[in-house]
Design a protein that fits this description.
- By secondary structure, this protein is an all-alpha fold.
- It is 63% helix and 2% strand.
- The protein has two domains: 1-35, no CATH class; 45-250, no CATH class.
- It has helices at 38-44, 49-81, 87-128, 138-143, 154-166, 186-209, 216-250; strands at residues 11-12, 18-19.
- 34% of the residues are buried.
């Protein structure tokens, strides 16, 4: 038994200790042994590249939809400010804007499911690396998003931890709590800031636009804010792609 493997034939048990190949688990230790060679341990600690590509592609597609919605939102806002635009044209511009906005929001929800799966699988992979003293592990990758108010903070803490673990060089040995010496990235802070600001602007515009007594001037301001919210959310999506790809890439280093 040792704290580190002597060669590639050694395996790690669930007690965190390494054992030579001749010490095969029997009935007396089967309950505490989980056999993994260093090579197998390293393979299981890698973030799935296929899932990363799928989730990243969905984020890019959703961001494009938000940009298109922002463009048509600006056009609708222009129609509100122009006295020469007919009511029919203005209604048509509003319909196109709301249509693209709905498409983007639907895509955001669908992509959100992929993000939950990706964070769960990534957290599971980092558990396989032997990362210890974690606070925001697998259960939090999903639950953090559904706690009122706390959801504006907890998911960011989950991503911070994943980034820090991914930065620890992994050569087949358990990484323990080495990840605590690492830091998260500035782009990780940026994507979360953009996400929170985008959601805030979107909520404000929804309250303004759903008011049946809103006048044309207020509707114009609300539409401009809505276009800005769509653009900010698009930027948040692209920044998140960078974060996810960096975590996936670092896990293979």
């Amino acid at each position: 038994m040792a704290d580190r493997p002597r060669d590639d034939t050694w395996w790690i048990a669930s007690d965190g200790k390494w054992y030579p190949s001749n010490l095969q688990p029997d009935s007396s230790v089967a309950a505490v042994v989980d056999v993994q060679s260093p090579a197998a341990l390293k393979a299981s600690g890698v973030v799935p590249s296929a899932l990363t590509r799928i989730a990243s592609g969905a984020l890019v597609a959703t961001s494009i939809m938000f940009v298109v919605a922002a463009f048509f939102g600006l056009q609708y806002g222009t129609s509100l400010r122009s006295a020469s635009v007919s009511d029919e044209s203005r209604a048509s511009a509003e319909e196109v804007f709301l249509g693209w906005s709905s498409f983007a929001l639907f895509a955001m929800v669908a992509t959100g499911v992929l993000i939950l799966v990706w964070t769960f699988r990534t957290s599971k992979a980092f558990d396989a690396r032997g990362a210890t003293n974690r606070r925001w592990n697998r259960g939090w990758t999903i639950g953090a998003w559904f706690i009122p108010l706390a959801s504006f903070v907890l998911p960011k803490l989950v991503f911070n931890e994943l980034e820090r673990i991914s930065r620890v060089p992994f050569v087949g040995d358990v990484i323990g709590d080495q990840w605590k010496e690492e830091s998260h990235s500035a782009i990780g802070d940026l994507w979360w800031l953009l996400w929170v600001v985008g959601l805030f602007l979107f909520q404000v515009t929804q309250m303004l636009l759903t008011d049946p007594t809103v006048d044309a001037g207020t509707a114009d301001v609300a539409t401009s804010l809505s276009s800005l919210a769509h653009g900010v959310l698009a930027a948040a999506g692209i920044a998140l792609v960078v974060v996810m790809r960096r975590i996936e890439s670092s896990s293979r280093a």
